[in-house]
Amino acid sequence: MVASFLTDAVVVVVVLGFMILVHELGHFIAAKSFGVRVLTFSLGFGKRLCGFKRGDTDYRVNALPFGGYVKMAGDDPSEVRQGNPHEFLERPRWQRFVIVVMGPAMNAVLAVVLLAGLYKFHFPKPAYKEQPARVGYVEPDSPAARAGVQPGDLIIRLAHLRNPKWEDAEMKILTTVGETLPLEVSREGQNISLTLTPKAEGPDRIGYAGVYPYLPAIIGTVEPQMPAGRAGLQPGDQIVGLDGHKLYCGPCLAYVLQLGQGRPVDLAIRREGKEFHVQLKPAYSESRGEKMWRIGVGFRSDVVVKKLPLGSAIATSVRDNLRNCLVTFDVLTKIVTRRISTRSLAGPIGIAQLSGEAYRAGIPELLMLVSFISLQLAIFNLLPIPILDGGVILLLLIEGAIRRDLSLEVKERVVQVGIVFLLLLAVFVMYNDIIKTFRPY
């Protein structure tokens, strides 16, 4: 537990530190290119821990790691302006706009570069995510079950999605809570129109439908002393039926066994083109530190490893980041309109947990998460909130439209509102993380 916590803390500090470095580097490069004097380049806030000075700039690392800033000469409107062309506020508005926007732009570029690198060299992905959305299993009494969805159905329309892949269908369900989605499935050659209403579930209160993908139950491992091993099942066998019904989702067999509470099951097995049946009584034994009803088999997990040409990797990365961007704005809109719980937001604790899990899963998963968080950081900083980059951009646009600077009093009030808002937001997301940690449901 302690080791896991320390790992999460170290990983999140490194991840966020790297993304903040890239963000502030964007401001720094743009400022330098326009001749603006940079006084401080800081990672973190609070007390200065270490650093060095080169030219006019103090490069430093401060005690509080979550954040950073670039301090430029003449960027404080309350200070007396000297009329020096090396001051930020003396530069033309378009140059100030570029300096401000370059921070979020660098985070967006980082998101694209990381994904493109994964797609170019090595990006493992569950094969089912890129396959048509065929249903493998439906949980009893779930929203999907109440909608009339059945195992074997092929989803041909979900809301505005036509012939969706599982990846797109999953994302649509996760970001929809309490709203009715038009659903059309193909079943035994007939198209059937249904409606699906996902409900909120889990610590993040995200959309849940109780529907799982088609995953062939091809046995990968067999435990010799367990029921499956004693019955002679072998790696490579496929379980095609359960108690007289077709089995479309291998991993979902474990869920069915728990519901049966040890009741014997009849399995239809296909081996080398021939089919036969075995009767098994599950054993109540331990797996991964938890006791459950098991027959002692593990299923193959089909994984697709992408290695795209550079041009295709970049194009795919741009497309996926644009999709993530649209999904983010959709979720933010639903949070503001109270159609999705605010518990779906993650603060530092939540990000640390996700970072630690991704690190333990492997470098590709960690890079994928860093790319996603970097994109979220770009979007968050572009929101028109005072003292964030988006708030500064909004003020520059207003001043450009009215062809004069806003008064110092107005700017001070805007900054005060922004500080209060961000402090309240920080307290809220921390509280949110703690609630999800100790009261997950």
Verbal overview:
- This protein is α+β, with helices and mostly antiparallel strands and 441 residues long.
- The protein folds into 3 domains: 2-121 and 357-438, no CATH class; 129-212, Pdz3 Domain, CATH 2.30.42; 217-286, Pdz3 Domain (Roll), CATH 2.30.42.
- It is 44% helix and 26% strand.
- The protein has helices at 2-33, 93-121, 143-147, 166-174, 227-230, 253-260, 310-336, 348-361, 363-382, 389-402, 408-438; strands at residues 38-54, 57-72, 123-126, 135-138, 154-158, 161-162, 181-187, 190-196, 199-201, 206-208, 211-213, 217-222, 238-242, 245-246, 265-271, 274-280, 283-287, 290-294, 297-299, 303-306.
- Strands 12, 13, 14, 15, 16 and 19 form a 6-stranded antiparallel beta sheet that branches. A 4-stranded antiparallel beta sheet has the order 6-5-7-8. Strands 1-2 form a two-stranded antiparallel ribbon.
- β13 and β14 (245-246) form a beta hairpin.
- α1 crosses α8 (348-361), α2 (93-121) packs antiparallel against α9 and α2 (93-121) packs antiparallel against α10.
- It is elongated.
